[in-house]
């Protein structure tokens, strides 16, 4: 496109401001500018081999695939840089622009190379560029270590939001923690989960840029002192026990076909300078080193619990550390233009992703009152106007309630502030409900009892102007159940924001064949406006369109079958029904219910070896929290059942080829974003079978449907909204409703009754108990069996028969491939609502009150680097 243009532009012509930053000398200017920004094949190729030599210090003879990956990553990063700087300059540093600050302890952003190439429209060019290396682009993309800085849905939501914010040109910063070790790598050994540390930074991270000049100081421990200042005002001084430094590492987040490159700013903990001084002065080297270890431990590792609270002090340190760094950073930015904090809420919208960053409410109060000398009322007004709070769970075991002893030891000043907030809040409550002592106790930020605790969700509700749930049902339950009293006090704060996922990552990058097929039919508008997928409905009877849809699904299934053979050594038939459940292992998600269906199918085949059954491949993947024994046992049971089923000759009688079988069971290790990208495009059936009322939203349900899978699911989370939109006739519904679940629990639930009255269920449970799947070992799975028979907290037995019958309907429907195909197309065509672009637009309109701010590049720059998508979406075909 700009072949040779670099020369011409510099011949006596005006050099745009941004280029001056890059050009170190006039002499070097021509070459440097061109190599680092040019978007054509020749320039990229030159940059690619230059980076190989000058950054990786390798030449072609020595370079590994990883060296080439790094060289390409730097080549791509260079092409994001000036749009990134422009975004920073025109948005964050501009007075009249409001910026969204998304605070999240987790970001599950996935590999960056493929996404960045797609979003800047360089995918096809890059494929040509790497040819000379002897590797193909796909090989290089596989080299990237995934940044696993999250557990599951919550962290992935934050990542989808960043993609949408940049694509929609909304000024935003994502703030979080740069964990040195992300979510552990899961290995399956003898059928059980083994956790391996995730050393994702081992070979360096080409996407991040450290910013030591923006380092912040964070205090911990110690005590507080009250005093009166020169103006006679009451003040409090916090004398900390120690201070820790936080250094930000910035990662560019480029939107699709947009000039906006927002920042993901992750904080890394370092020992403070005082540490160094101590070494020299005190001679107490051991203690000084211990302090260094304390500091640097803070961002060492991600806690691997999903939807589960563990009151560990280190976790509170992490939360306070990143929130304090972020708020100081935001205030530093603010004060560059403004000295009147009244304007603060007009400049920044702070969103707290679940309660993990909720300490921010007390920290902003502390910064405003103690460090910037605002009066309490003024500071409180600003704080409330600034924060929004997203709740992600109703599960009581997931609610953060910090014991006062830990809290007071680590954050003595914040505890005082929280007591003060609570006192003023409860005074209001008492004024409104003078007689109702119990209501006051229920609303209090402090849970009374032997071990008093700070209820972080309550602090978040009181300290925010907006509170939202993440799906219609979830918000309904929030307002009528968990936050009922708060809803009664201030109903206007509450709203629903149903989650979404980015179609760039989850269709364009993950399923490039389907993306191209769609674009060929309806153009590429759907990539930024997913509602346009509706136009596909017109082709639901178009034979050519249908054939290709089916062909693409088939090829995706073949790709996954190959992967399964490579990783698990199991032959699976791409013509069988791919029935898939991938998500964190959790009892409420009911992987066990799925497995009970597998065992039931197996028993049916054994009983009637010549029955005409629809062949199925049932695929599981998901990590269990290392301390969650029951979840780990479920993984072991899945693998044990797989062993028996996959090796039973009675199951495989359909033909002589190894993959020809009527039932196969596969557990894929180490579920992460990269694996998810392989899995969704290959699914026929999406398992979304949580106990009604337990899954706040779910997002894999959306990703599956977008890729043409049909859902078997309960009326839980976003399933309800998916079903309403794709059409009830295109969704396999089973199970109790939320109301029926509560009713059943209220009247006393007896799993035994179901066990005794359902022979198929009894048989399956008895087999597990008898050691049928554990080589005769009757003890191994006893905890599972006992838990089901005696408690069955998640009502697997109550939903079993409904689920089995629904699965029979699934199989019958699959026999009619024409009808199935129609349902598959209609599912994908009607998922437009579930784009995270829609979700972000709603947050922007209702909670953040922010507008898009298009980033303007210089004229000649527009021509060269503004992302011109040359081809349609041919983008990703491999
Ligand atoms: C989408 C996604 C999730 C969330 O899945 P749910 O089934 O909604 O819980 C978790 N992990 C990864 C890697 C994902 O991509």
UniProtKB/TrEMBL annotation:
The EC designation for this entry is 2.4.1.1
PANTHER family (alphabetical): GLYCOGEN PHOSPHORYLASE, GLYCOGEN PHOSPHORYLASE, LIVER FORM
Family of the protein in this entry: Belongs to the glycogen phosphorylase family.
The organism that produces this protein has a lineage beginning with: Bacteria, Bacillati, Cyanobacteriota, Cyanophyceae, Nostocales
EC top class, in one word?
transferase
Reported cofactor(s):
pyridoxal 5'-phosphate
Q: Which reaction does it catalyse?
A: [(1->4)-alpha-D-glucosyl](n) + phosphate = [(1->4)-alpha-D-glucosyl](n-1) + alpha-D-glucose 1-phosphate
Under what name is this protein listed?
Answer: Alpha-1,4 glucan phosphorylase
> What is known about what this protein does?
Phosphorylase is an important allosteric enzyme in carbohydrate metabolism. Enzymes from different sources differ in their regulatory mechanisms and in their natural substrates. However, all known phosphorylases share catalytic and structural properties.
Q: Which UniProt keywords apply?
A: Carbohydrate metabolism, Glycosyltransferase, Pyridoxal phosphate, Transferase
| Stored InterPro entries | Glycg_phsphrylas (IPR011833), Glyco_trans_35 (IPR000811), Pyridoxal_P_attach_site (IPR035090)
- State the organism of origin: Brasilonema bromeliae SPC951
């Amino acid at each position: 496109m700009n072949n040779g243009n670099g020369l011409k532009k510099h011949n006596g012509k005006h050099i745009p401001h941004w280029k001056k930053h890059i050009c170190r000398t006039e002499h070097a200017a021509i070459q440097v500018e061109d190599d680092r920004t040019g978007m054509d094949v020749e320039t990229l190729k030159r940059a690619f081999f230059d980076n190989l030599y000058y950054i990786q210090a390798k030449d072609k003879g020595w370079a590994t695939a990883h060296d080439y990956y790094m060289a390409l990553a730097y080549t791509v990063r260079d092409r994001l840089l000036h749009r990134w700087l422009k975004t920073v300059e025109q948005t964050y540093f501009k007075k009249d622009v409001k910026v969204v600050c998304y605070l999240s302890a987790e970001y599950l952003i996935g590999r960056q190379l493929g996404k960045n190439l797609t979003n800047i429209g360089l995918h096809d060019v890059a494929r040509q560029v790497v040819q000379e290396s002897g590797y193909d682009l796909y090989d290089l993309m596989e080299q990237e270590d995934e940044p696993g800085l999250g557990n599951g849905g919550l962290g992935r939501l934050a990542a989808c939001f960043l993609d949408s914010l940049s694509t929609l040109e909304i000024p935003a910063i994502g703030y979080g923690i740069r964990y040195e070790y992300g979510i552990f790598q899961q290995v399956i050994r003898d059928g059980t989960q083994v956790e391996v540390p995730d050393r994702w930074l081992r070979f360096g991270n080409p996407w991040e840029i450290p910013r030591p000049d923006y380092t912040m100081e964070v205090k911990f421990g110690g005590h507080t002192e009250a005093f009166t200042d020169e103006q006679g005002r009451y003040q409090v001084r916090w004398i900390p026990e120690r201070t820790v430094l936080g250094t930000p590492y910035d990662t560019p987040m480029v939107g699709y076909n947009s000039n906006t490159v927002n920042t993901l700013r992750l904080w890394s903990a370092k020992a403070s300078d005082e540490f160094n001084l101590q070494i020299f002065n005190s001679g107490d080297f051991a203690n000084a080193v211990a302090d260094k270890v304390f500091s640097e431990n803070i961002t060492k590792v991600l806690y691997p619990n999903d939807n589960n609270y563990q009151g560990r002090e280190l976790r509170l340190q992490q939360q306070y550390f990143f929130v304090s760094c972020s708020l100081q950073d935001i205030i530093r930015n603010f004060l560059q233009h403004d000295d009147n904090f009244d304007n603060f809420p007009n400049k920044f919208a702070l969103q707290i992703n679940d309660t993990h960053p909720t300490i921010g409410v007390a920290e902003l109060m502390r910064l405003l009152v103690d460090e910037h000398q605002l009066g309490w009322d003024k500071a409180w007004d600003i704080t409330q106007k600034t924060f929004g709070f997203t709740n992600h769970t109703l599960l009581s075991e997931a609610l953060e309630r910090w014991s006062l002893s830990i809290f007071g030891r680590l954050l003595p000043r914040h505890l005082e502030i929280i007591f003060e907030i609570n006192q003023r809040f409860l005074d209001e409550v008492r004024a409104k409900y003078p007689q109702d002592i119990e209501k006051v106790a229920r609303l209090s930020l402090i849970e009374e009892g032997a071990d008093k605790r700070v209820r972080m969700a309550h602090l978040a509700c009181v300290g925010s102007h907006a509170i939202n749930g993440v799906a219609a049902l979830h918000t309904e339950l929030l307002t009528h159940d968990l936050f009922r009293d708060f809803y009664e006090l201030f109903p206007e704060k509450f709203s629903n924001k149903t989650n979404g996922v980015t179609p760039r990552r989850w269709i364009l990058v993950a399923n490039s064949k389907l993306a191209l097929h769609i674009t060929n039919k309806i153009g590429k508008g759907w990539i930024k406006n997913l509602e346009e997928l509706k136009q596909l409905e017109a082709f639901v009877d178009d034979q050519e369109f249908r054939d290709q849809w089916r062909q693409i699904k088939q090829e995706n299934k073949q790709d996954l079958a190959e992967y399964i053979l490579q990783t698990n050594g199991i032959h699976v038939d791409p013509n069988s029904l791919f029935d898939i459940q991938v998500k964190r292992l959790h009892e409420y998600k009911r992987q066990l219910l799925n497995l009970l269906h597998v065992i039931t199918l197996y028993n049916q085949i054994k009983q009637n070896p010549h029955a005409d059954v629809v062949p199925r491949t049932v695929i599981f993947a998901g990590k269990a929290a290392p301390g969650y024994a029951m979840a780990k046992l479920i993984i072991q049971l899945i693998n044990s059942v797989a062993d028996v089923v996959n090796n039973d000759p009675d199951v495989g009688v359909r033909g002589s080829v190894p993959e020809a079988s009527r039932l196969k069971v596969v557990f894929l290790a180490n579920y992460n974003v990269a694996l998810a990208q392989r899995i969704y495009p290959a699914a026929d059936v999406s398992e979304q079978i949580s106990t009604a009322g337990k899954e706040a939203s779910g997002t894999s349900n959306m990703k599956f449907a977008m890729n043409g899978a049909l859902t078997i699911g309960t009326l839980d989370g976003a399933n309800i909204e998916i079903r309403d939109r794709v059409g009830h006739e295109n969704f396999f519904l089973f199970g109790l409703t939320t109301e029926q679940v509560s009713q059943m629990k209220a009247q006393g639930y007896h799993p035994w009754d179901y066990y005794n009255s359902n022979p198929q269920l009894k048989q399956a449970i008895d087999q597990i108990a008898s050691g049928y799947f554990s080589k005769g070992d009757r003890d191994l799975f006893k905890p599972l069996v006992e838990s089901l028979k005696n408690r069955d907290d998640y009502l697997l037995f109550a939903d079993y028969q409904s689920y089995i019958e629904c699965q029979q309907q699934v199989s019958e429907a699959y026999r009619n491939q024409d009808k199935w195909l129609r349902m598959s197309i209609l599912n994908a065509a009607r998922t437009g609502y579930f784009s995270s672009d829609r979700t972000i637009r709603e947050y922007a309109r209702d909670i953040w009150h922010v507008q898009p701010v298009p980033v303007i590049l210089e004229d000649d720059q527009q021509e060269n680097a503004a992302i011109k998508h040359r081809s349609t979406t041919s983008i990703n075909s491999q």
